[in-house]
UniProtKB/TrEMBL annotation:
This is aminodeoxychorismate lyase. It catalyses: 4-amino-4-deoxychorismate = 4-aminobenzoate + pyruvate + H(+). Homodimer. Gene3D superfamilies: 3.30.470.10, D-amino Acid Aminotransferase, subunit A, domain 2. One of its GO terms (molecular function) is lyase activity. Its cofactor is pyridoxal 5'-phosphate. Belongs to the class-IV pyridoxal-phosphate-dependent aminotransferase family. It comes from Streptomyces composti.
Length: 273
C-alpha cells in the first residue's frame, strides 16, 4: 500500500511521522474522508474547501490544495480499488511537547482504504454526552476524535452502528461521524449548523437535492419522527430502523427511500457536485 507523505508516495510500512507531531501529541490537526469510486474522488472540491476552513479555524497555515489534489490522484493510481476512502490528514507538524503552537512546518498524509457499500438501514443510540455548540472547535473537522470514539464504542455495545448527540440546550445535533435527518409529516428536517453539527458534505448535498429544511429539533423528536436517516461520506444516505428501544419497522420508509435514490443518481452523474 502506498501513501503520500513529505511530498511524495511512500510505502505505508516504512513511512515515518515524528513522534512529536502535534497531530499525535495534542490532536492539533484536521482531516477529510473522501469517497473514491473507481479511482475517482467524489465531491473533492467541497472537501478541500472544508479542509481550508478547518485549517483556518485551528490557526494552521492554509494547506497547499494543489499538492493535496496531486496526492489524491497519485494515491488513487497507486492503489486501485472499486470503492475506497481517501483519508487526508493535515497537522501542525512536529514541535515541543505541550499545548503551545510552535509546530515546525506541517504534516500532510493521504492514505486510501477499501470500503464497502453501506447496508440500507442501521440501528442508532443516543448518548448522554453533549456536543458543545459554542466551542472553539465546533464545526471544524479536527483530529480530536476521542469523544466520538468513546460514543461509538457505547453504540457498538448496544448493537448499533452510530451514536447520536444532543447539544447543551437539549437539541438534536449529529452522530459521531454522520449528520441526522428526520421526517415529520412528509417533510425532511435536519439540525442547523448552529446546533454544533459538522457541515457535512453529504448533508449539504441531500439538503440541496431534497429540499430538506434546517430546523431546531428537540432530542426527543427521535421518539416520534416518522422516519430517521443518517448521511455521511461513508454511509451516503442510510435509514435508521432502531433508535434506542424504539423500532422503526419498514425502514427505509418512502421519504428516505426517495432521498437514497436521489442521492445515488445525482452523485453518480456528477463526481464533483
Ligand atoms: N459529523 C461528523 C462529526 C463527522 O465526522 C462527519 C464525517 O466524518 C459527518 C458529520 C458527515 O460529514 P460528511 O458528509 O462530509 O462525511
Amino acid at each position: 500500500m502506498k501513501i503520500w507523505l513529505d511530498g511524495g508516495l511512500q510505502d505505508t510500512e516504512s513511512a515515518r511521522v515524528s513522534v512529536f507531531d502535534h497531530g499525535l501529541t495534542v490532536g492539533d490537526g484536521i482531516f477529510e474522508t473522501v469517497k473514491a469510486v473507481d479511482g475517482r474522488p467524489f465531491a473533492l472540491t467541497r472537501h478541500l474547501d472544508r479542509l481550508t476552513r478547518s485549517a483556518r479555524g485551528l490557526g494552521l497555515p492554509d494547506p497547499d490544495l494543489d499538492e493535496v489534489r496531486r496526492a489524491c490522484t497519485a494515491v488513487l493510481e497507486a492503489n486501485p480499488m472499486p470503492l475506497g476512502r481517501l483519508r487526508i490528514t493535515y497537522t501542525g507538524g512536529h514541535g515541543p511537547l505541550g499545548s503551545d503552537r510552535g509546530g515546525h512546518g506541517t504534516t500532510l498524509v493521504v492514505a486510501l482504504g477499501e470500503t464497502s457499500r453501506r447496508p440500507d438501514s442501521t440501528a442508532v443510540v443516543t448518548v448522554p454526552w453533549t456536543r458543545n455548540e459554542r466551542g472553539a472547535l465546533t464545526g471544524l473537522k479536527t483530529t480530536s476524535y476521542a469523544e466520538n470514539v468513546v460514543a461509538l464504542a457505547r453504540a457498538r455495545e448496544r448493537g448499533a452502528s452510530e451514536a447520536l448527540f444532543g447539544n447543551t440546550v437539549g437539541q438534536l445535533c449529529e452522530g459521531t461521524g454522520s449528520n441526522v435527518f428526520v421526517v415529520l409529516d412528509g417533510e425532511i428536517h435536519t439540525p442547523p449548523l448552529a446546533s454544533g453539527c459538522l457541515a457535512g458534505i453529504t448533508r449539504a448535498l441531500v439538503t440541496e437535492w431534497t429540499g430538506a429544511k434546517e430546523t431546531d429539533l428537540p432530542l426527543d423528536v427521535l421518539q416520534r419522527a416518522d422516519e430517521i436517516f443518517l448521511t455521511s461520506t461513508l454511509r451516503d444516505v442510510q435509514a435508521v430502523h432502531r433508535v434506542d428501544d424504539r423500532e422503526l419497522p419498514g425502514a427505509p420508509g418512502p421519504v428516505t427511500a426517495k432521498a437514497m435514490r436521489t442521492f445515488d443518481e445525482r452523485s453518480a452523474a456528477d463526481l464533483d457536485p
